[in-house]
Design goal:
Layout (H helix, E strand, L loop, with lengths): L1 H62 L1
Amino acid sequence: MTEKIEKEFEIADVMSQSVSKSSNEKLKAIAEGCAVELKLGMEILGVVFEKATQEQEGTATEEK
């Protein structure tokens, strides 16, 4: 009976390691996706900031 319980624990341990590895890979993929989204967002903000700066400078020169 003890051997059967030990075997069940071994199987459960292997299964939990497999699930943990799978979860870690999924989390890594999600993190990489977030990094790409963040990079794109920063690029968009850079373009918007540059355009706003150009518009502000354009208005400043028109007022002179």
